[in-house]
Automatic annotation (TrEMBL), chain A:
<dbReference type="InterPro" id="IPR039428">
    <property type="entry name" value="NUOK/Mnh_C1-like"/>
</dbReference>
<dbReference type="InterPro" id="IPR001133">
    <property type="entry name" value="NADH_UbQ_OxRdtase_chain4L/K"/>
</dbReference>
<keyword id="KW-0813">Transport</keyword>
<comment type="similarity">
    <text>Belongs to the complex I subunit 4L family.</text>
</comment>
<feature type="transmembrane region" description="Helical">
    <location>
        <begin position="28"/>
        <end position="48"/>
    </location>
</feature>
<dbReference type="Pfam" id="PF00420">
    <property type="entry name" value="Oxidored_q2"/>
</dbReference>
<dbReference type="GO" id="GO:0030964">
    <property type="term" value="C:NADH dehydrogenase complex"/>
</dbReference>
<keyword id="KW-0560">Oxidoreductase</keyword>
<keyword id="KW-0472">Membrane</keyword>
<comment type="subunit">
    <text>NDH-1 is composed of 14 different subunits. Subunits NuoA, H, J, K, L, M, N constitute the membrane sector of the complex.</text>
</comment>
<comment type="function">
    <text>NDH-1 shuttles electrons from NADH, via FMN and iron-sulfur (Fe-S) centers, to quinones in the respiratory chain. The immediate electron acceptor for the enzyme in this species is believed to be a menaquinone. Couples the redox reaction to proton translocation (for every two electrons transferred, four hydrogen ions are translocated across the cytoplasmic membrane), and thus conserves the redox energy in a proton gradient.</text>
</comment>
<keyword id="KW-0874">Quinone</keyword>
<dbReference type="GO" id="GO:0050136">
    <property type="term" value="F:NADH dehydrogenase (quinone) (non-electrogenic) activity"/>
</dbReference>
<protein>
    <recommendedName>
        <fullName>NADH-quinone oxidoreductase subunit K</fullName>
        <ecNumber>7.1.1.-</ecNumber>
    </recommendedName>
</protein>
<feature type="transmembrane region" description="Helical">
    <location>
        <begin position="6"/>
        <end position="23"/>
    </location>
</feature>
<dbReference type="GO" id="GO:0042773">
    <property type="term" value="P:ATP synthesis coupled electron transport"/>
</dbReference>
<keyword id="KW-0520">NAD</keyword>
């Protein structure tokens, strides 16, 4: 098996995540889709690290994980505070700025 | 370790190929399940499965440290955070199937397909035939190699990461902190409010009958034989889970009284009549006064 299959898997997962962000309406599930996209890019980075024979790709994947953890913490805090005021986690309901 | 080194080289063994195809199916299935499941909890569990599969993929590619971090940070911390928020927001909340924009779902699927084809075609076109492999880079071990890079070439990014994490933690605390608009009521104010409202001044009656039953779903009896609905908590009352055992108790007390009367040889005029069965939650009819008046006596004897 050619290790390039990992890249195909990564592309597939990224695509599923991106389509999920467009399809789903629940803010929490949207966040999960974003996490899936980040994971897919991590897999690509690890595979690139193997391709080049250096560890830099793994370092970048590591930093991606840290940023993802921080992003999830802040994002979920925002979702919780929106849920407290609007009593809904659906992104369709947050339309105060709509004309 | 030799297996890991072999896995980290440019070619893949048969074992890695088998493992890849198994895990790829799991990962893609989990991802599709996450997008397609209607309940957020199911989505979260599907995503956890995908992340575990990816962690094994990392390890198979020589990124042992990242695989462990993936399991600890992603499936451990981040998914737990997701599940906490799902529980907070409501497990039962489902996505509405109503489309806010017409044809948006179809367009989204189309966009996804186009994007995927573009991405995969790009990779297929790239001629990635020579994989160097990590056996050289991982020669002194994966973790020492990563540490060498993090603390030399990427030390600045590493320090900035620390600042980012602190900012995120403070941001989460600020965002979820609830400010009291007015001071919370003291106990004295609450008591004054209760007197002012004048709905239920004394404490609610305790549940249970005759010190025989003290379960929370058994209502207490009022002096006239009716049950005190206040003694059962509101949740059980609304569910209709009040268990009225007062008739059973009255019957047993009357039986006890009758055995005493038998032993003492009392005439039948002094014996209590056994109350007939009555429906739950209905007051006792007024034409059975002797059964009611005999109850406290029977109770005292039963307690002795």
């Amino acid at each position: 098996m050619n290790p390039v299959n990992y890249l195909y898997l990564s592309a597939l997962l990224f695509t599923i995540g991106a389509a999920g962000v467009l399809i789903r309406r629940n803010a929490i599930v949207l966040f999960m889709c974003v996490e899936l996209m980040l994971n897919a890019s991590n897999l690509a980075l690890v595979t690139f690290s193997r391709l080049h024979g250096t560890l830099d790709g793994q370092i970048i994947a590591f930093f991606t994980m840290v940023v993802a953890a921080a992003e999830v913490v802040v994002g979920l805090a925002i979702i919780v505070s929106i849920f407290r005021t609007r009593h809904s986690a659906s992104v369709d309901d947050s339309n105060l700025m709509k004309l | 370790m030799t297996a890991l080194n072999l896995a980290a080289t440019g070619t893949t063994s048969l074992g890695e190929a088998v493992q890849f195809w198994v895990l790829a199916v799991v990962a893609v299935g989990g991802a599709l399940g996450m997008v397609l499941m209607r309940k957020a909890v199911h989505s979260a569990l599907c995503l956890a499965a995908t992340m575990l599969a990816l962690a094994v993929c990392y390890m198979a590619q020589g990124a042992v440290f990242l695989g462990v971090v993936q399991i600890v940070v992603y499936t451990g911390a981040i998914m737990m955070l997701f599940l906490f928020v799902v529980m907070l927001v409501g497990v039962t909340s489902e996505d509405s199937l109503k489309e806010q924009l017409k044809g948006q779902r179809f367009a989204a699927v189309l966009c996804g397909l186009g994007f995927g084809v573009l991405l995969i075609a790009g990779i297929a076109d790239a001629r990635l035939n020579h994989f160097t492999g990590l056996s050289e880079a991982n020669a002194e071990g994966n973790v020492p190699g990563l540490a060498r890079l993090i603390f030399t070439r990427y030390v600045w990014a590493f320090e900035v990461t620390g600042a980012l994490l602190i900012t995120a933690a403070i941001g989460a605390m600020v965002l979820t902190h609830r400010e009291h608009v007015k001071a919370p009521k003291t106990q004295r104010e609450l008591a004054a409010q209760r007197v002012k409202d004048n709905i239920q001044l004394p404490p609610l009656p305790a549940p249970g009958v005759y010190a025989r039953h003290n379960a929370v779903d058994i209502p207490a009896l009022l002096p006239d034989g009716t049950i005190a609905e206040d003694s059962v908590m509101e949740t059980l009352r609304e569910r209709g889970q009040i268990r009225d055992v007062s008739q059973e108790m009255l019957r047993r007390m009357a039986e006890l009284e009758n055995t005493t009367a038998d032993w003492l040889g009392r005439p039948s005029s002094e014996r209590p009549t056994v109350a007939g069965p009555r429906k739950s939650l209905e007051p006792v009819p007024a034409q059975q006064p002797d059964a009611q008046t005999d109850v406290p006596k029977a109770d005292q004897e039963g307690a002795e």
